[in-house]
Structures are given as structure tokens and as C-alpha cells.
């Protein structure tokens, strides 16, 4: 029954959102397929160990001064089904720079055997910078006279819920809760706004036999006053150590990735993204590479999520106690 429900949900999501338009507010990454914390901090703890990830992405190689993004994130266990995480990224496009730093807290609640609910909240700080020194224009303009850069800082927050049932998970959240005004008001009356953002995802891992697994993954991002972004991907997993992935984004982008666990604690993943239509078609492609490290394995919190529990002495004692109570009431 549960398997049928999973297939129905996956099919419904693809049907409802199959023709949506595309837009984005923050730099995207394809590496949430093996670094899910980069999709939502509520994934903290889902891999059974603390994690460090370093990510570099270079967009649109055929364009000068095209976007570059440097990203770092980490998450770790602090006890009692609680996890902390942090993320920082720097995104640069020509004279524009944006920095983000965030801290997250995740709590893991067991609902039934092999079923868990993760609840995560986080706060973020953003700094937006325009490098005046690199502008080609009239430096006597009152807006930029005697300045080397325009800079403004703002704050925001987010939350999400994720339900896990063995290798299946589905989640909903708001990466950006507040619509903020980040205007350079001392120099101009222009506005720079962060819109509210909504995010939905669904994923499951299927055993295809032997040491091969298949993980389909669908992500839907909707930002107020902007089109919807949809990712649909499939990842083949070999011996639970190596993987190959293909991702389609409805902005007419296709991404192909390969990666694996090089050592017991180190992971490496590379993705090449190419445009198959629109502005992306002649962009020259996008490269993205991520290096990850895992540390501090904690069996108690996560192994029970990723694989079925075996009947142990505690459950045998519980079963015996129920039989004893039934016999006592009958007597």
C-alpha cells in the first residue's frame, strides 16, 4: 500500500507541474542529490554522520564575467535527536556580489517504526555589494561619486518539514519566509527585494537488484512574482559508493553528473550542465564540482532510518509483556 502511494504522489507531482515556467532568486546547485543539506537544512542528520561540503560552480562559460558561486555547508549531531548546521556562499556576477551566511537547527521525531519527521528552522544574513571601482561609466554620477562600493545587509529566515519512511522522503518548506526590502536608500530610492519562496520535494530509492539502486528526485521551487522552477532527476547508485545522475530543469537545462566515495570519509562529485534551448543554448555550459567529508558516525539516530530494524530483545520483551497482560485480564 505504501509503495502504491509513493508512485501516485510522484506521478501527481510530475503531472501538475510539468508545464510550469522558470525563474530563480538565488544561485542554484545540482549537488543536493548527494548533499541534500544544500537543498534544505532539515536534511541534517539524514546520512548518519556529520558532514562538510565545499562547492564551486561556474555558469555560462561563453559569457565574460559570468556567475561564479563558492559554497560551504556543514551539519552535525548534538544529541537527543537534534542537529545543528551552517552554510555560507559567495555569488559573484561582474560587479555584483552577494554573500549569505546561515545557521540551522533540526529536530528529528520518530512517528513509527522506520518513520520519522524532521523539523528544521534557520536564520540567514545577506550582504549585497556593487563594486563601483569596476563600473564603466560616468564616475561623477551623484549615486556613485566618492564611493568604491555600495553595500547593504539584510536578514531572513526559513523552515521546512521532511517525512522519512526508509528510503522514501517528501518535504515542504519556505527557504525565504519574509519579503524584504534591501534598498540602497542612502544613495537612491531604488528597491531590491527578496521574495517569499516555497519549496516542495519528493524522492525514493529503489533496489534494481544486485548492488544497483535508482533514486528519482523531483524538486519544485515557487517564488512570489516569479515563475516556477522544476527539477526532475534520476540517479543510479552502484554498490552504495558510486553514482551517475541526469537532471532536467524546466529552464531547458540538462545536467549530467558522476561521483563516488573515494575513501571512507571523502566524496567527490562533478556535474556538467548544458542548455538545450533558450538563453542557455549558447551559454557554453556550466561546471560544478563538490568535495565532501563525513565524520562522527552516530548509529543510534540514523541507521534505523535508512534500513529496516531487526527484531531485538527490547521488542521481544514488549511482545511478551502484551501476551502476559492479555492472559492476566482473561484470568
Shape: globular
CATH superfamily: monomeric porin ompg
Strand order of the largest sheet: 1-2-3-4-5-6-7-10-12-13-14-15-16-17
Order of helices and strands: HEEEEEEEEEEEEEEEEEHH
Q: How many strands appear in the DSSP assignment? A: 17
Strand content: over 45%
Give the C-alpha Rg: 23 Å
Distance between the termini: 38 Å
What's the domain count?
Answer: 1
Question: What report would you give on this structure?
Answer:
The chain has 331 residues and is mainly β. It has one domain: Porin (Beta Barrel). Helices cover 13% and strands 51% of the residues. It has 3 helices and 17 strands. A 14-stranded antiparallel beta barrel has the order 1-2-3-4-5-6-7-10-12-13-14-15-16-17. A two-stranded antiparallel ribbon has the order 8-9. The radius of gyration is 23 Å and the shape is globular. The N terminus and C terminus are likely disordered.
Give a short overview.
This protein has 331 residues and is mainly β. Helices cover 13% and strands 51% of the residues.
Protein traits:
331 residues; mainly beta; Porin; 14-stranded antiparallel barrel; two-stranded antiparallel ribbon; 3 helices; 17 strands; disordered C terminus
Write the layout of secondary structure elements.
Layout: H1 2-17, E1 50-58, E2 68-79, E3 82-93, E4 96-112, E5 115-131, E6 149-165, E7 168-176, E8 180-181, E9 193-194, E10 197-203, E11 206-209, E12 212-223, E13 228-238, E14 242-249, E15 253-261, E16 266-275, E17 286-295, H2 299-306, H3 313-330
Antiparallel strand pairs: 1-2, 1-17, 2-3, 3-4, 4-5, 5-6, 6-7, 7-10, 8-9, 10-12, 11-12, 12-13, 13-14, 14-15, 15-16, 16-17
Amino acid at each position: 500500500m505504501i509503495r502504491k502511494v509513493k508512485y501516485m504522489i510522484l506521478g501527481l507531482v510530475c503531472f501538475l507541474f510539468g508545464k510550469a515556467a522558470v525563474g530563480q532568486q538565488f544561485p542554484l546547485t545540482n549537488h543536493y542529490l548527494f548533499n541534500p543539506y544544500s537543498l534544505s537544512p532539515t536534511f541534517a542528520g539524514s546520512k548518519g554522520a556529520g558532514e562538510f561540503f565545499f562547492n564551486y560552480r561556474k555558469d555560462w562559460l561563453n559569457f565574460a564575467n559570468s556567475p561564479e558561486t563558492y559554497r560551504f555547508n556543514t551539519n552535525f549531531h548534538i544529541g537527543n535527536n537534534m542537529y545543528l548546521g551552517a552554510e555560507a556562499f559567495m555569488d559573484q556576477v561582474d560587479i555584483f556580489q552577494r554573500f549569505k551566511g546561515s545557521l540551522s537547527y533540526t529536530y528529528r521525531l520518530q512517528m513509527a517504526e522506520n518513520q520519522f519527521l524532521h523539523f528544521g528552522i534557520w536564520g540567514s544574513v545577506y550582504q549585497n555589494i556593487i563594486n563601483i571601482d569596476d563600473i564603466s561609466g560616468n564616475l561623477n554620477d551623484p549615486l556613485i561619486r566618492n564611493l568604491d562600493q555600495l553595500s547593504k545587509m539584510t536578514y531572513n529566515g526559513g523552515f521546512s518539514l521532511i517525512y522519512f519512511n526508509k528510503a522514501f522522503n517528501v518535504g515542504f518548506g519556505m527557504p525565504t519566509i519574509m519579503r524584504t526590502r534591501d534598498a540602497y536608500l542612502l544613495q537612491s530610492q531604488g528597491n531590491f527585494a527578496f521574495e517569499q519562496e516555497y519549496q516542495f520535494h519528493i524522492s525514493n530509492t529503489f533496489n534494481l537488484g544486485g548492488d544497483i539502486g535508482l533514486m528519482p528526485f523531483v524538486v519544485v521551487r515557487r517564488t512570489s512574482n516569479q515563475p516556477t522552477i522544476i527539477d526532475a532527476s534520476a540517479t543510479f547508485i552502484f554498490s552504495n559508493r558510486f553514482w551517475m545522475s541526469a537532471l532536467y530543469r524546466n529552464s531547458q537545462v540538462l545536467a549530467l553528473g558522476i561521483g563516488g566515495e573515494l575513501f571512507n570519509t571523502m566524496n567527490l562529485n562533478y556535474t556538467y550542465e548544458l542548455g538545450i534551448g533558450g538563453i542557455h543554448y549558447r551559454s557554453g555550459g556550466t561546471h560544478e564540482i563538490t568535495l565532501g567529508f563525513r565524520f562522527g558516525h552516530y548509529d543510534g539516530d540514523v541507521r534505523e532510518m535508512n534500513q529496516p530494524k531487526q527484531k531485538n530483545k527490547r521488542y521481544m520483551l514488549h511482545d511478551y509483556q502484551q501476551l502476559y497482560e492479555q492472559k492476566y485480564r482473561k484470568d
